[in-house]
Amino acid sequence: MNARIAGVDPALLQRVRATLALDAGEPTPARVAAALRSEGRLLGDAVVLDVVEALRRDIAGVGPLEPLLAEPGVTDVLVHGPAQVWIDRGSGLEPAGVTFDDDHAVRRLAQRLAGSARRRLDDATPFVDARLPDGSRFHAVLWPVSTGGTCISLRIPRRRAFTMDELVFEGSVPPDGARLLARIVKARLAFLVSGGTGAGKTTLLATLLSLVPTNERLVIVEDASELTPAHPHVVHLEGRPPNVEGAGEIDLRTLVRHALRMRPDRLVVGEVRGAEIVDLLAALNTGHEGGCGTLHANSAVEVPARVEALGVAAGLDRGAVHSQLAAAVEVVIQVARGRDGRRRVDEICVFERAADGLVRATPAVEFGAAGEVVPGAGMARLSALLTRRLAEEGAS
User: Fold this and answer.
1) Boundaries of every domain in the chain
2) To the nearest 10°, the Cα dihedral for 377, 266, 212, 393?
3) Cα 340 vs. chain centroid, distance in angstroms?
4) Engineering a disulfide at 378: which of 118, 153, 319, 350 sits with its beta carbon 3.0 to 4.6 angstroms away?
């Protein structure tokens, strides 16, 4: 499906679009019919309505992408120039069967979406990363920076969090793994969910936060709001990029500091990727138990190195980063995306400090592709942590 309509020349459609653009307002049937008459064309009511719908999508919606975003289960829509549109329904990328007339149409859509997010996108600023009003994550790069044509990436947020039972049913978490994850949340262990891009970190974290007792207050800090836990007491704080004048930025580090003054029972940083790691580690070391967040890492054993890199870039020395990490975070949960496109929990590790003072992630439990549970060297430490903290929770 594209912007072409049977019996209507695309060039004519473009001129009608330009005519309507001169006057602000919706592309109503009357306005479209008048614009067509001005072009010397008299078309039937059905064709006029098709033109109205096409223009409405182009002017107010997401053009040819609109039916894709309405499909249940679609998590990502990717556009690479006018002829390549891909979607992900949770099982990997597949062609969407949708095209645009030309790269100008893709560029026009990208600029309009950027405008709806109050962001600039033009030759001087040829890329943008923003959250759209409906909550979708939007990224675009214009041609010729993207040499194959303008690129648009849309990440569609799930309107509600998966339940743990749903993740088990989908094969993302084995039953024994679900019970272990629930105990980690109940014990108020501080944890990080790590994994690659699109591996399901946010999905899993939202599910785990839904297990937090309802009498606890969640304060969630994110660059762009994506976490939607099923919980009655959630406070969202969202960062803000600078405006076109370079002013007005609110970074995550500032928000983490403000979140600490809002009496959080659980402090959550949706995606740790900058200097906010310093404030998060400091918070988890000063009585804010059960805090958590996500972190990009290809494997759990790489998480200490990723935290070290972020902390050193923020001004801490290597020893201080590892000291803070060892005292602040107990568990890392690694999620992965298999070759079949399925997202699943891969392993659960505990952090242990070695003789050289550096923190290492030791596998406590690994989950096979068939859901089998393989205990690792860190299982004894994880069991001891859970036993002690659950006993403390029961006594409080």
Assistant:
1) 1-60, 63-157, 164-395
2) 70
3) 21
4) 350
Write down the pLDDT at residue 323. Answer: 94
Task: Report pLDDT digits (tens) over 152-186.
Answer: 999 887 777 889 999 999 889 999 999 999 999 99
Q: How far apart are CA 188 and CA 289, in angstroms?
A: 6
Contact 41, 52 (CB under 8 A): no
Would you say 14 and 8 are in contact if contact means Cβ atoms under 8 Å apart?
no
Q: What is the SS3 string spanning 8-32?
A: ECHHHHHHHHHHHHCCCCCCCHHHH
Give the list of residues 6+ apart from residue 91 with CB closer than 8 angstroms, or none.
340, 341, 342
In the chain, pLDDT over 90 holds for what percent of residues?
49
**Please, what is the end-to-end C-alpha distance for the chain in angstroms?**
60
Q: Which residues contact 261 (CB under 8 A, 6 or more apart)?
A: none
Q: Report the mean per-residue pLDDT for the chain.
A: 85
d(CA 294, CA 302): 14
Whether residue 229 contacts residue 209, with contact meaning beta carbons closer than 8 Å, is answered with yes
Fold of 63-157: Beta-Lactamase (3.30.450)
Which helix (H) or strand (E) element contains residue 154?
strand 151-155
Q: Which residues contact 364 (CB under 8 A, 6 or more apart)?
A: 331, 347, 348, 349, 350, 375, 376, 377, 378, 379, 381, 382
Regions of the chain short of the pLDDT cut 70: 1-29, 31-61, 244, 395-396
DSSP 3-state assignment of 212? coil
CA distance 147 to 151: 9
pLDDT the model gives residue 149: 93
Return the pLDDT at 18: 60
- CB half-sphere exposure, 35, CA atoms < 13 A: 22
DSSP-derived secondary structure letter, 202: H
Report the distance separating Cα 159 and Cα 7, nearest Å: 39
